[in-house]
From TrEMBL:
Gene Ontology MF annotations: DNA binding; metal ion binding
One of the GO BP terms on file: negative regulation of DNA-templated transcription
A Pfam match: Trns_repr_metal
Segments forming a coiled coil: none
Protein name as annotated: Metal-sensing transcriptional repressor
Gene3D superfamilies, per database record: Metal-sensitive repressor, helix protomer
Length: 104
C-alpha cells in the first residue's frame, strides 16, 4: 500500500480519503479478522478445548497487529508526511501518543 492517504478536516474532525484499492485491502483484512472473531465465539459456545481457543485468539491478535502495521505505514507515509510538509507540528504529539498505545 504505497499510495499516500489524503487527510482533511470535515466538520471539525480529521478524516482520511483513501485510494479505493487501499481501502479495499484494509477492509478485507478487517473482514478476515471479523471471521476469526466469530470463530472464537463459536469455539467457546461449542466448549472447544482451552488450548485450541488460545491458539485461535493468538491468531486474531497477530492479524490485528498486521492490520495496525499496514495502517500505521499508510498514515506515516501520507498523513504525517503531509502534515510535516504543511507545518502542522502537532502531528508529532499525535503520532507519539498513537505509538505509545500501539506498543504497550
Amino acid at each position: 500500500m504505497s499510495e499516500p492517504c489524503r487527510c482533511f478536516n470535515e466538520g471539525g474532525r480529521r478524516k482520511t480519503r483513501r485510494e479505493p484499492r487501499t481501502k479495499k485491502l484494509l477492509l478485507n483484512r478487517l473482514k478476515r479478522i471479523e471471521g476469526q472473531l466469530h470463530g472464537l465465539v463459536r469455539m467457546l459456545e461449542e466448549d472447544a478445548y482451552c488450548n485450541d481457543i488460545l491458539i485461535q485468539s493468538a491468531a486474531v491478535s497477530a492479524a490485528i497487529r498486521a492490520f495496525n502495521k499496514e495502517l500505521l505505514d499508510e498514515h506515516i507515509r501520507g498523513c504525517v508526511a503531509g502534515d510535516i510538509k504543511n507545518g502542522r507540528d502537532e502531528i508529532f504529539d499525535e503520532l507519539s501518543e498513537t505509538l505509545r498505545m500501539l506498543i504497550r
